[in-house]
Write a structure and sequence with these properties.
This protein is α/β, with parallel strands linked by helices and about 475 residues long. It has a domain of about 190 residues: Ribonuclease Inhibitor (Leucine-rich repeat, LRR (right-handed beta-alpha superhelix)). Helix content is about 20%, strand content about 15%. It is built from 5 helices and 21 strands. The strands form 4 sheets. It has a 14-stranded mixed beta sheet, with helices on one face. It has a 3-stranded parallel beta sheet with strand order 13-15-17, with no helix packed on it. Strand 1 and strand 2 form a beta hairpin. The longest helix is centred in the C-terminal third of the chain and has 34 residues. The radius of gyration is 36 Å and the shape is elongated. About 35% of the residues are buried. Bound molecules: 2-acetamido-2-deoxy-beta-D-glucopyranose (4 copies). Keywords: Leucine-rich repeat, Membrane, Repeat, Signal, Transmembrane, Transmembrane helix.
Length: about 475
């Protein structure tokens, strides 16, 4: 779509590029559109992508409406201070192999709102403290969005971001951070207007203590693809969160208390693509009063969601969409949610065990989904019992013995399962042990009695028995 638009514009608008293929140095051409593509997009775009620049091109134009400068895929290793460029609102310097950036490099770009420095192998040393400085402290940069993704950042100097009071969106995803150092936490915490923070794919296994406490306006937090093995308690300090993404982390279970009452503003929660997520416990989501969208899909080991996972959660008011497709769910409790009032329910690609506990799904819920969202019913298939394996849930409704919990329905392997064998083994051991104990007790009793001088009666009884036996034999 975007490509089509660009091609269209390309054919309509001024088109002038340097075709000789040599690296471009400063030139005295004053019209940048002689060197780059100037596209009447919204905003107006000067596209110098892939133009083999090794330095900033001459930028002396005076554009009187908002515009965007695209300098990606060049070889501008050194970023000097930009000249005054009125109305430049977005600057993309991605993929240049930047080696250094001058102090206050962007100070003259008074209208700049978005800056992209992605894919540059930037380190904290390159991004030193005064890179983002404005012309002076009274005139900080008005930058609202900064993209530092796909670099080589292990940290950030503590004051690097202090000149960006208006920053609302920060992308640091895909950097080898591992453990957010104190300096970096400080740098991020100075951004009091920050609303969106992307820390995905940073190898994080925890968040620093109280990391999010100062970010009072943070609405969107993305921690996808890290190494978090539990829901970090620090997310509960981000009181304004409306969106939280924990996709792809090695979390094994979601429990009560993972999401506290402090997260009552969260409207959308993503817990998908988790390789080892196995269960969701009772009251796991009970504190999320405003949850409207829950995406919990593609978790190959997620076999169960506790039927009380949403208890105390005022459902009638909020939850609208739930995505549970492609998990390992075998059953689902009818009472877990007011299923029929939800706008979107996706339960496809789970190995459903079609017994009596799932009858409601086939008879009540699926027909409803079929009417409202037919595409969400294409793959609702039984994995058990054997007789129904591979059949759509809706196709076995009305079949004799369908959705039955009565015998002869016997779950696979019950008879000779390891558990049964273990029980039998334990039983046999117990029997042998009690026999031994019984024999030993008998033996001791005999001994004790003999010590107490009661042997006589025993012997007598024995001899009587023997006599009796002899008599019988003789008779
Ligand atoms: C560009 O500058 C060079 C010297 O740097 C000069 O020789 C050339 O004439 C200039 N070209 C134009 C079009 O001004
Ligand atoms: C550029 O345009 C602005 C108005 O947008 C004007 O104030 C300024 O003087 C112009 N500068 C130059 C160098 O032409
Ligand atoms: C990235 O920068 C580091 C030093 O900060 C260097 O060792 C490494 O080779 C660079 N990687 C690439 C792909 O340029
Ligand atoms: C920051 O935002 C405020 C409020 O929107 C605005 O008044 C101010 O001019 C902005 N600062 C800069 C440097 O753009």
């Amino acid at each position: 779509m975007k490509a089509v638009l660009i091609i269209f514009v390309y054919s309509v608008v001024i088109l002038a590029t340097n075709a000789d293929g040599s690296p471009r140095k400063h030139s005295n051409k004053t019209n940048i559109c002689m060197q780059c593509m100037c596209l009447t997009l919204q905003p107006y775009t000067v596209d110098c992508m892939n133009a083999r620049y090794e330095e900033l091109p001459p930028l002396t134009m005076n554009i009187t409406y908002p515009w965007k400068l695209q300098l990606t895929h060049n070889k501008i290793r050194h970023i000097p201070q930009f000249p005054l460029l009125h109305n430049l609102i977005k600057l993309d310097l991605g993929r240049n192999g930047i080696k250094n950036i001058d102090e206050a490099a962007f100070a003259n770009l008074y209208d700049l709102k978005g800056l992209v420095l992605a894919y540059n192998n930037l380190s904290a040393e390159i991004l030193e403290t005064h890179v983002f400085k404005g012309t002076n402290m009274l005139q900080p940069l008005g930058l609202e969005e900064l993209d530092l993704s796909y670099n080589n950042l292990h940290s950030l100097e503590g004051h690097t971001l202090q000149y960006l009071p208006n920053l609302t969106k920060l992308h640091i995803n895909n950097n080898p951070i591992h453990d957010i150092p104190y300096d970096m936490a400080t740098a991020i915490n100075t951004l009091e207007n920050l609303e969106e923070l992307d820390l995905s794919q940073c190898n994080l296994d925890r968040l620093p203590y109280h990391f999010l406490t100062d970010l009072r306006k943070l609405r969107k937090l993305t921690l996808a693809g890290n190494k978090l093995s539990i829901v970090p308690a620090e997310v509960n300090y981000a009181h304004s969160l409306t969106y939280l993404n924990l996709n792809g982390n090695p979390i094994t279970t979601i429990m009560k208390g993972d999401f506290s009452e402090a997260l009552r503003n969260v409207q959308e929660l993503e817990l998908s693509g988790m390789p080892v997520l196995r269960s969701v416990g009772p009251e796991a989501f009970s504190s999320l009063d405003h949850l409207a969208v829950l995406k919990m899909c593609d978790n190959p080991k997620l076999r169960s969601i506790n039927m009380y996972a949403f208890t105390f959660f005022d459902l009638n008011r909020q939850l609208q969409e739930i995505y549970l497709q492609s998990n390992a769910l075998t059953t689902l409790a009818e009472d877990m949610l007011p299923w029929t009032t939800l706008k979107v329910v996706d339960l496809q690609n789970n190995p459903w065990s079609c017994d009596c506990k799932l009858r409601w799904l086939a008879e009540d819920l699926i027909p409803l989904i079929e009417r409202t969202n037919p595409s969400k019913t294409l793959s609702l298939i039984c994995a058990e019992p054997d007789t129904d394996r591979g059949h759509k849930l809706t196709n076995i409704v009305g079949k004799p013995n369908a959705f039955s919990c009565d015998p002869p329905y016997i779950p696979k392997y019950t008879i000779y399962s390891p558990v049964a064998i273990a029980i039998i083994a334990v039983g046999i051991t117990l029997m042998i042990t009690s026999a031994i104990i019984f024999a030993y007790t008998l033996y001791r009793r005999t001994k004790v009695k003999s010590l107490l001088g009661e042997t006589v009666r025993y012997r007598r009884a024995h001899s009587i028995d023997e006599d009796g036996y002899d008599e019988i034999v003789e008779s």
